[in-house]
Amino acid sequence: MTTQPAQKLREFWNARYAQEAYAYGTEPNEYLVSQRHRFRPGGRVLCLADGEGRNSVYLAGLGFQVTAIDISDEGIRKGQQLAKERSAVVEFQVADVLSFDLKPSEWDAVVSIFLHLPSKRRVEFHRRCLAALKPGGVFVYEAYTLDQIGRSTGGPKEPQVLAPPEEAWSDFPEEMLVHRFAGDRDIREGSHHSGLGAICQFTAVNQAPA
Asked: Of 197, 124, 117, nearest to 160 (Cα)?
């Protein structure tokens, strides 16, 4: 049964994705593109809160086995449409990331692009994501930070879901972090991410022995 907060979230995103245009464009996130070389060729990739499918369709086009989840029915519908247009094979599922069944050691990569969660839920969820990575598996993250508050270039307006970079990085053991960055970058992703954004990025690799 869908909880009331999840239902409200679904309604919000369904309304945003109901427009004909793709709210965040159809091209992949730049940070994800820069990290794709770390993914095991042909590996299983999970794209979290993938919206209208721009990142999952991109990865599927490179030969990865991609599953994309999003809470929005409309987002999934448009992702399926984009996949069809680009002859990409993606397994799309309507699902709340917080209740999605993350099985241990199942994924070669997990992608979290602009998924914003309250602090306690984010920490718990990232712990589950780490456990879901196979040995050598990769976790790729980009999100807005508190410094984005007051800007009109995108992202949530609720401070409680905008993690300071040091907090986001600390969700994973430091020895796993192969890249991290915090600062401003110019983001051009559809009409809702347009302009200079305050962001946090990191890539973590599961160092557990195979």
From this structure: 117
